[in-house]
């Protein structure tokens, strides 16, 4: 069952940048990862779905709501977590959540308390609920953003590049929380980090230049490249020549300080190459390269 449907969406900014280019995408409930480099158009797409800006053309439907015609109906069931947070007052997380719950019209104290406790528990903030949100670290503020979002029981959750800038432990904690809430909601999650998608998402799309290059699953994307990924130890000076002769996906040093080139080829490119298991990063780099050479 698909419940978020985006059809032929286009957005051109006044400076002429086409940030979203005739994009269509169907998304089912669960965790959906939107993977793309900086400038791909991910934020523009997400802000448009979140009704924060209008596209030039196209349509968006979520569970029967025509999002562009009826933005208020979507806002009632939407949780949107932007990249940047505003300034928080010197108030404890618990009190601030109580305030937000009241604003959202949760009148009964008992109901409010239950809701807040659940939000604090899901986001692992229960222990620090008495601390001022202004004193929280970046990762804790991100989690507070999720807690705040959960108060309104959103059906659609949009999270824009949440892991950028988090340290590894906070990143893992944040991904775990998303994993938990992803089982009950439709979560659209954007990132430029391949591992975020690999660890978290059942479904995904690769986006660049305002377009969807591939809609797939992390497993299928890698599986498609079986027996097509080859590595070879090289000298650093050879890199440019390899790049011009082959489809070079990446290069990295191994422990013995040898540089390895990783290339894509349907056939074994030469005797000095060794077959390697494909991964999602290969699929991502290949999709970006093929899109660039097609231009
Ligand atoms: P991403 O989130 O994938 O990094 P964005 O949606 O932020 O991509 O940006 C897509 C393109 O649109 C980029 O080229 C960016 O510079 C441009 N862009 C984004 N916002 C604006 C804006 N308000 N005005 C003009 N250009 C913009």
Defining key terms:
Rossmann fold, binds adenosine-5'-diphosphate, 27% strand, alpha/beta, 6-stranded mixed beta sheet, 2 domains, single chain, 4-stranded antiparallel beta sheet
The number of strands is: 14
The outline comes out as globular
Give the low-confidence spans: none
**CATH architecture grouping of the largest domain:** 3-Layer(aba) Sandwich
Adjacency order of strands in the biggest sheet: 6-7-8-3-9-10
Distance between the termini: 34 Å
Class per helix and strand makeup: alpha/beta
The residue-averaged pLDDT reads 92
Count of domains = 2
Give the CATH topology of the largest domain: Rossmann fold
Largest sheet: 6 strands, mixed
The distinct bound ligands, ions and cofactors come out as: adenosine-5'-diphosphate
Elements, N to C (H/E): EEEHEEHEHHHEHEHEEHEHEEEH
CATH superfamily of the largest domain: P-loop containing nucleotide triphosphate hydrolases
How many helices does DSSP assign?
A: 10
Quick recap:
The chain is built from ten helices and 14 strands. The chain has a six-stranded mixed β-sheet with strand order 6-7-8-3-9-10, sandwiched between helices. The chain has a four-stranded antiparallel β-sheet with strand order 2-1-4-5. Helix content is 35%, strand content 27%.
């Amino acid at each position: 069952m698909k419940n978020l449907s985006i059809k032929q969406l286009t957005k051109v900014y006044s400076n002429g940048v086409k940030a979203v280019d005739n994009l269509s995408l169907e998304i089912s409930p669960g965790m959906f990862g939107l993977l793309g480099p900086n400038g791909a158009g991910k934020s523009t797409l997400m802000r448009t779905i979140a009704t924060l800006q209008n596209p030039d053309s196209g349509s968006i439907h979520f569970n029967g709501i025509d999002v562009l015609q009826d933005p208020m109906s979507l806002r009632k069931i939407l949780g949107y977590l932007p990249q940047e947070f505003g300034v928080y007052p010197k108030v404890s997380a618990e009190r601030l959540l109580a305030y937000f719950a009241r604003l959202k019209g949760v009148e009964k104290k008992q109901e409010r308390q239950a809701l807040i406790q659940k939000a604090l528990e899901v986001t692992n903030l229960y222990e620090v609920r008495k601390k001022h949100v202004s004193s929280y670290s970046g990762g804790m503020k991100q989690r507070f953003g999720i807690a705040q979002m959960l108060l309104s029981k959103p059906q659609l959750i949009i999270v824009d590049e949440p892991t950028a800038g988090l340290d590894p432990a906070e990143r893992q904690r944040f991904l775990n929380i998303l994993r938990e809430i992803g089982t009950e909601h439709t979560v659209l999650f954007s990132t430029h980090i391949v591992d975020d998608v690999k660890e978290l998402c059942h479904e995904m799309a690769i986006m660049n230049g305002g377009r969807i290059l591939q809609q797939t699953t992390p497993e299928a994307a890698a599986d498609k490249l079986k027996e097509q990924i080859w590595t070879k130890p090289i000298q650093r000076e050879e890199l440019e020549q390899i790049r011009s002769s082959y489809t070079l996906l990446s290069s990295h040093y191994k422990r013995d300080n040898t540089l390895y080139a990783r290339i894509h080829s349907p056939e074994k490119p030469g005797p000095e190459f060794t077959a390697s298991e494909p991964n999602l990063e290969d699929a991502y780099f290949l999709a970006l390269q093929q899109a660039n050479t097609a231009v």
